[in-house]
C-alpha cells in the first residue's frame, strides 16, 4: 500500500517535471516574438505586465496549445499563432481595464486629452491616415501579415476568423491601403497592391 | 503601389524596431510563473480558487511593474559580484532512509534556496540561485561538493532543486530535494512565514 502511494507520488513528480520542461521549452520559443507583438500594440510600460499575464495563461493551458509536442521542443510556426491569440486576449482585457480607469479619471478631472502620436508620426502621416480608414479587425489582420509575417491560415488562428475570411479581408485591406497611399502621394492608381509578392 | 512596397511601408513604422526595449528576461519570466502557479500542477480538477490565484498573481506582477515581485528581495541579478557559497554534503556512515522533510527540519538550517544546476563536474555541483529563502547573499551562486550521494537525488544540469544547509553542510536527510510544487510550498511555509 505504502509502495503504491510512493510510486504514485513519484509518477506525479515526474509528470510535474515533464510539464515544467515542456513549458520552459515553449517559453524559450515564444517569449521574444510575443514581446515584439506587444511592443507593437501597447505602451512600453504595459508590455511586461501583459507578457507576464500571457505566460500565466500559457502555463495553465499548456495542454491545449495546438502543435505543442509531448516531448520535443515546439516549432515556432506551429505554436505561435495560438500564443499570439492568447496575447491578443490578454491585451484586450488590459485595454478594457485601462478604458474603465481612464473613464473614471476623465469623470473626476473633466479633462480628456488625446493620446500623443508616435514620435515619428510626421514621417508616415499618410500611412497612419490610411490605416485609420480600416476597421479594427482589418487593421489587426494587416499588421499580423506585415509585422508578424503570418500567413492567412495563421492569422485565422490568432483572430478566430476563418482562413477564407482572413484572405478576403487581407486582400481588401491591402487594396484600400494602397489606394489611399497612392491618392495621397499622387501615384497613378492601378498599380495593384497584391502584385509583387507570392501568395501568403 | 504593389504588395512589396506596402509591406516596406508597414515595416518602416514597426514599433518593435523603433522602440529600443530590452528583450524579455526569459529565466526570470519562467521563475516568476513557476513560483506563482504551483496550484495548477497539483490538481487536474478546476478549482474555484484558480482564477483568483491567477488574477492575484497577475495583479501582483502588474502592481509592481513587472516580474520583480517575488524576486525583489531575493534575486541574484542585482549583485552578480558576490563569491559563490561553498557547501559540502555531510558524510555519514549510516545507511539512512530519510523521513519526509518537515517544516521543523527545514527551519533547522541556516541556508535555504531554490537553484538551477548549471554544471556537475567531478563531484561538484554548481547552482544559479533563483530564489533565496534564508542565508546571506547568494548572488554569486552556490557550489556543492558531494562526498556522498543524497538519497534518491541525482543532480542534473538544467534541473531545479531546493537546497538547505546548516553552516555549510548539506545533511543527507536535511530536506534537499527536487523543486516540486509541494516541496516549494513546504519551503515557503518554513521560511516565508517567518518574514
Can you describe what's shown?
Chain A: Residues 125-177 form the RNA polymerase sigma factor 70 region 4 type domain. Chain A: Belongs to the sigma-70 factor family. ECF subfamily. The complex is a heterodimer of chains A (200) and B (195). By secondary structure, chain A is mainly α. Chain A has helices at residues 2-39, 44-60, 76-109, 125-132, 136-146, 152-159, 163-185. Chain A folds into two domains: 1-115, Rna Polymerase Sigma Factor, Chain: A; 118-194, Orthogonal Bundle (Arc Repressor Mutant, subunit A). Chain A starts with a helix and ends in a 15-residue tail after the last helix. In chain A, 30% of the residues are buried. Chain B is elongated, with a radius of gyration of 21 Å. Chain B has a seven-stranded mixed β-sheet with strand order 6-1-4-3-2-5-7, covered by helices on one side. The longest helix of chain B is centred in the first third of the chain and has 14 residues, at 50-63. The model of chain B is unreliable at 39-81 (pLDDT under 50). Chain B is built from seven helices and seven strands, in the order αααααβαββββββα. Chain B has two domains: 3-37 and 47-63, no CATH class; 85-192, OB fold (Dihydrolipoamide Acetyltransferase, E2P), CATH 2.40.50.120. Classes of the chains: A mainly alpha (200), B alpha/beta (195). At the A-B interface, helix 1, helix 2, helix 5 and helix 7 of A face helix 1, helix 2, helix 3 and helix 5 of B.
Amino acid at each position: 500500500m505504502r509502495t503504491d502511494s510512493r510510486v504514485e507520488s513519484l509518477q506525479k513528480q515526474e509528470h510535474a517535471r515533464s510539464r515544467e520542461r515542456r513549458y520552459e521549452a515553449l517559453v524559450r520559443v515564444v517569449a521574444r516574438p510575443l514581446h515584439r507583438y506587444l511592443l507593437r500594440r501597447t505602451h512600453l510600460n504595459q508590455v511586461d505586465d501583459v507578457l507576464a499575464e500571457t505566460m500565466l495563461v500559457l502555463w495553465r493551458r499548456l495542454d491545449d496549445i495546438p502543435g505543442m509536442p509531448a516531448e520535443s521542443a515546439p516549432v515556432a510556426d506551429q505554436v505561435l499563432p495560438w500564443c499570439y491569440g492568447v496575447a491578443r486576449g490578454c491585451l484586450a482585457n488590459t485595454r478594457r481595464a485601462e478604458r474603465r480607469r481612464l473613464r473614471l479619471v476623465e469623470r473626476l478631472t473633466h479633462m480628456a486629452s488625446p493620446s500623443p502620436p508616435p514620435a515619428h508620426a510626421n514621417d508616415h502621416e499618410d500611412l497612419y491616415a490610411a490605416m485609420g480608414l480600416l476597421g479594427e479587425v482589418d487593421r489587426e489582420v494587416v499588421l499580423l501579415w506585415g509585422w508578424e509575417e503570418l500567413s492567412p491560415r495563421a492569422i485565422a488562428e490568432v483572430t478566430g476568423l476563418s482562413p477564407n475570411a482572413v484572405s478576403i479581408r487581407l486582400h481588401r485591406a491591402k487594396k484600400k491601403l494602397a489606394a489611399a497611399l497612392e491618392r495621397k502621394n499622387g501615384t497613378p492608381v492601378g498599380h495593384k497592391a497584391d502584385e509583387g509578392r507570392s501568395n501568403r | 503601389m504593389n504588395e512589396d512596397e506596402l509591406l516596406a511601408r508597414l515595416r518602416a513604422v514597426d514599433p518593435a524596431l523603433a522602440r529600443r526595449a530590452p528583450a524579455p528576461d526569459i529565466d526570470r519570466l519562467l521563475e516568476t510563473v513557476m513560483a506563482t502557479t504551483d496550484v495548477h500542477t497539483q490538481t487536474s480538477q478546476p478549482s474555484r480558487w484558480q482564477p483568483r490565484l491567477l488574477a492575484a498573481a497577475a495583479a501582483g506582477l502588474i502592481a509592481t511593474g513587472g516580474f520583480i515581485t517575488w524576486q525583489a528581495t531575493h534575486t541574484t541579478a542585482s549583485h552578480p559580484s558576490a563569491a559563490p557559497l561553498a557547501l559540502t554534503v555531510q558524510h555519514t556512515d549510516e545507511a539512512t532512509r530519510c523521513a519526509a522533510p518537515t517544516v521543523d527540519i527545514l527551519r533547522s538550517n541556516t541556508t535555504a534556496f531554490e537553484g538551477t544546476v548549471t554544471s556537475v563536474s567531478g563531484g561538484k555541483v554548481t547552482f544559479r540561485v533563483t530564489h533565496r529563502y534564508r542565508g546571506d547573499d547568494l548572488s554569486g551562486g552556490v557550489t556543492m561538493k558531494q562526498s556522498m550521494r543524497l538519497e534518491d537525488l541525482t543532480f542534473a544540469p538544467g534541473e531545479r532543486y531546493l537546497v538547505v544547509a546548516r553552516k555549510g553542510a548539506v545533511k543527507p536527510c536535511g530536506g534537499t530535494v527536487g523543486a516540486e510544487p509541494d516541496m516549494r510550498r513546504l519551503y515557503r511555509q518554513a521560511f516565508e512565514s517567518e518574514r
